């Protein structure tokens, strides 16, 4: 029997999902997350709330995603038109694809690994309610669905390698490529950026999941990323708020560090109140 292990990061915890069940939740090191508050009414850690209860709240959120959206299972929902997070990475990428600012996106999907797509509804469907995926196992049914929508999967192992994903996208003829890179991960933004010159492409790098990153990683992100999410990183806020040429959202800031990043979101104006109401109702 093939391994079925998916490791995601949410609320600073590492959560392991296997065979449709949450099997492990590590101890979180934050007490509040703006995005969690927006979507789920707030997972907070007030005085007196034990670590065990906080971990149980985190587990409930992930279990809900498995039940409702097929997260990390063969029943994964992959197509969505509506925005879920006002200034989420998938929303900005879907907007960029619709408005021809980019011609493809290299993203990560649970059950598939690195995925190349030019379909905005797939970008939105994959990213809606999904947290940073650090490891995933190949799920054949998910791969079949993605290929039906003309998506390309890096391999049949569920590999997550955004540098290889960008290379494959360039080889397929895409010229204006956007890629999400986990700031909490170890992939080199410098090496990914170097692909621009190697293939003669325009590359927009989106750095996500910045909570808890170290100084060296922050310096790398500042130098090579185009768009950066603040998440729960005080260092990101202190450092990039001074450098950003445009900032989206005050609750959980998104920093445009380059003209390329600014161009991707030009004209983007989500209906925040509608999104909030639909998120909480669901």
Report on the architecture of this protein.
It is a single chain. By secondary structure, this protein is α+β, with helices and mostly antiparallel strands. The chain folds into 2 domains: 6-69, no CATH class; 89-269, no CATH class. The protein has 11 helices and 12 strands. The chain has helices spanning 34-40, 51-69, 89-98, 120-127, 140-148, 162-171, 189-199, 215-224, 234-243, 259-265, 272-281; strands at residues 6-10, 13-18, 21-25, 104-109, 113-117, 132-135, 152-153, 176-182, 202-208, 227-229, 246-248, 254-256. It has an 8-stranded mixed beta sheet with strand order 7-5-4-8-9-10-12-11, with helices on both faces. Strands 3-2-1-6 form a 4-stranded antiparallel beta sheet, with helices on one face. The longest helix is centred in the first third of the chain and has 19 residues, at 51-69. The radius of gyration is 18 Å and the shape is globular.
Strand order of the largest sheet: 7-5-4-8-9-10-12-11
- Unreliable residue runs: none
Please give the alpha-carbon distance between the first and last residues: 35 Å
Query: SS-based structural class?
Result: alpha+beta
As a percent range, the share of strand residues is: 15-25%
N-to-C order of helices and strands: EEEHHHEEHEHEHEHEHEHEEHH
The total tally of domains equals 2
Computed CA radius of gyration, to the nearest angstrom: 18 Å
Report the strand count. Answer: 12
Task: Provide the residue-averaged pLDDT.
Answer: 91
Q: In DSSP terms, counting alpha (H) and pi (I) runs of 4 or more, how many helices?
A: 11
Described by the principal axes of the CA atoms, the overall outline is globular
Quaternary assembly = single chain
The amount of helix comes to 25-40%
Strand count, sense and closure of the main sheet?
Answer: 8 strands, mixed
